[in-house]
Amino acid sequence: MKGTVLYGPGDIRFEDREDPKIIEPTDAVLRLAATCVCGSDLWPYRGIEKIKGPTPMGHEYCGFVEEVGSAVKSIKPGQFVVGSFATSDNTCAHCRYGYQSSCVHREFMLRAQAPFLRVPQADGTLVPTPGGAPSDGLIPSLLACSDVLGTGWFAADAANVKPGSTAVVVGDGAVGLLGVLSAKQMGAERIIAMSRHESRQKLAREFGATDIVAERGEEAVARIKDLTKGIGADSVLECVGTKESMMQAIGATRPGGYVGYVGVPHGVEFKGEELFYRHVHLHGGPAPVRRYLPKLIDLVLNGTINPGKVFDLTLPLEQVAEGYRAMDERRAIKALLRP
Amino acid sequence: MKGTVLYGPGDIRFEDREDPKIIEPTDAVLRLAATCVCGSDLWPYRGIEKIKGPTPMGHEYCGFVEEVGSAVKSIKPGQFVVGSFATSDNTCAHCRYGYQSSCVHREFMLRAQAPFLRVPQADGTLVPTPGGAPSDGLIPSLLACSDVLGTGWFAADAANVKPGSTAVVVGDGAVGLLGVLSAKQMGAERIIAMSRHESRQKLAREFGATDIVAERGEEAVARIKDLTKGIGADSVLECVGTKESMMQAIGATRPGGYVGYVGVPHGVEFKGEELFYRHVHLHGGPAPVRRYLPKLIDLVLNGTINPGKVFDLTLPLEQVAEGYRAMDERRAIKALLRP
User: Fold this and answer.
1) What CATH number does the domain containing B194 carry?
2) For all residues of chain B together, what is the average pLDDT?
3) Which CATH number covers residue B56?
4) Longest CA–CA separation in chain B, Å
5) I need a labelling partner for A46 at 20 to 30 A (CA). Which of A140, A265, B86, B158 fits?
């Protein structure tokens, strides 16, 4: 088969790769229905995150089970499954506490921008869709569950969004936009999306944003204070991962409020004393998508949510390099790839 | 009257001061039954925290209301009251959310190591003891509510201690020891106190510690992992405020667990990426003691808790300098001062 490999900044190649096969008895091999490019793929693509050599890319996936290892019990060939970007046995203590993305058997998935994919810890990582294969129109939304929706959902959960909350979402990438959707599902009464891009503002409103703030930095914080009677927001979803976005998130939160952060913080340092006097709750990390998958799949299948709308570009898999370019240049929010 | 003033590192003087009087109509003036030296007073005493000039000291207090301003409604002369180290109107949005130590009218108290004390925002800061003046034997425990117990209680609350939790307490100062007591009250099943001082270990056990860890740094983290089947603790109370203690606290927490931190973090910086992959919840700040005061006073008055045991040295107020010395040299856990 052919698969996607990053050779260096801006250098994405779709090239011959070995066909995946069962290595461990707990593995499954999937034939993917769809995969996509993640905002986090842009960090190494832009050279901000260094790579050690040619790196096979992709960690979002859904599709059909082709084959399973001898120790796999619940996952069966022929099933349509969605899996997390982080593998998990779903039985260790961390998994049982709901932190499957800190599983003792965690691996961060790679190689998913390809037609076939080996998934370790199949029983603990994959969730079959109830009722068999979904209609083709649902594939984008099911694919979104694998990371981008699950991550936005975790941001809202970590930010303690509750019915009636005022939530702020920092970041108008796909995760931020699905953070808006998640906050809406969790009952936020007011959702302030930070965006200066018209198409993204529009989608944010469609997903449930009640207010848009286009300012940045201190001006943004001042604007949010204005919108919240000087108090600050109950819940802030940090979906970027830069120092500026994090400071903006902490500044927008009321004392006693919650910051949920899901963008990998690149070069961010928190000053202890500043955080102390801010009185915020801080929680985040790689989203435990596996915890949320059954619920998210249900919400997609019963038509409650349509997170697949973040895919505003669909390409045949072999044009993956164009997907990266379009997202890098912010011409696309998120590129879906069809093998 | 005479009061306590810090002139520079190690230089505590008990000297003539103006008698406190009502300045704002929301003020009260108290005649103190007791006051004490706080662990945080040692930061400037040791010269680690710079002072700008002679600084009147003390922020823990309880005693009798002498006089109230014209706008004070609920607090009356003659009442015995306990107040927080941070003033609050108890009506602003932050107060209503339970973060009175971020009140829009917050002032951090000073000048309490004296026989008389002006307290701003009397109605929102002070809590009268039900049933009139308490017996003399209860004064140390009521005084403890003013900061040291309230702060330990907040550490446990911020660390999300629940019935059945495993809690670790970093720091064997008075706050840490009362963090142990608080975790016990909140139902922690296992309480691991970190201490290498025999007298403090003894008091920790008396307050509810089930295990003592004398190691520090990475060894301490390894020991706690051993004690928790390799998982880490649900709740860690950080009651010191140094980089070492904070890293120890974060390292001892399981993914998804909670760090409650109440020591002012001096020169602590959190690396965003490290925190991200640790998956911990982080919350802390100046304790909203006012939120807890009614409950803590009840627990003292009905004999459920005896936090006054942390005072292992009682001195006449005029010997305040000896109280500082004894605590600085760790000869005393905490010094109570009687005017």
Assistant:
1) 3.40.50.720
2) 97
3) 3.90.180.10
4) 60
5) A140
Residues B101 and B16 in one domain: yes
* Best mutation target, A271, A282, A292, to test chain B (most B CBs within 10 A): A282
What does the DSSP assignment read for B66-110? Answer: EEE-TT--S--TT-EEEE-SB---S-SHHHHTT-GGG-TT--B--
Instruction: Kindly tell me if the per-residue pLDDT of A265 is higher than 90.
Output: no
Record: contact B256-A231, CB cut-off 8 A: no
The 10s digit of each residue's pLDDT in B176-225 is 999 999 999 999 999 999 999 999 999 999 999 999 999 999 999 999 99
Asked if A319 and A177 count as a contact pair (C-beta separation under 8 A), the reply is: no
Pick the residue from chain B with its C-alpha nearest to A268.
B272
Contact call for residues A182 and A208 (beta carbons, < 8 A): no
Using CB atoms, pick whichever of A241, A246, A279 lies closest to residue B99. A279
- Binary contact (A282, B281; C-beta < 8 A): yes
Which candidate from A94, A268, A276 shows the least CB-CB separation from B285?
A276
Q: How many residues does chain A have?
A: 339
Residue A51: half-sphere exposure toward Cβ, Cα within 13 Å: 20
Whether B253 and B191 map to the same domain: the answer is yes
Over its C-alpha atoms, chain B yields an Rg (Å, rounded) of 19
Residue B263: closest C-alpha in chain A: A276
Mutation target to probe the A interface, by most A beta carbons within 10 A, among B94, B160, B291 is B94
**Structural domain count, chain B:** 2
Q: Which residues contact B305 (CB under 8 A, 6 or more apart)?
A: B141, B149, B181, B185, B296, B299
The whole-chain average pLDDT of chain A stands at 97
> Domain containing B297: what range?
2-147+288-338
Mutation for testing the B interface, residue in A240, A253, A281, A292 having most B CBs under 10 Å: A281
pLDDT for A314: 98
Do residue A283 and residue B281 have CB atoms under 8 angstroms apart? yes
Check whether residue A192 and residue A110 sit in a common domain: no
Question: pLDDT by residue (tens digit) across B276-329?
Answer: 999 999 999 999 999 999 999 999 999 999 999 999 999 999 999 999 999 999
Answer yes or no: do B251 and B204 share one domain.
yes
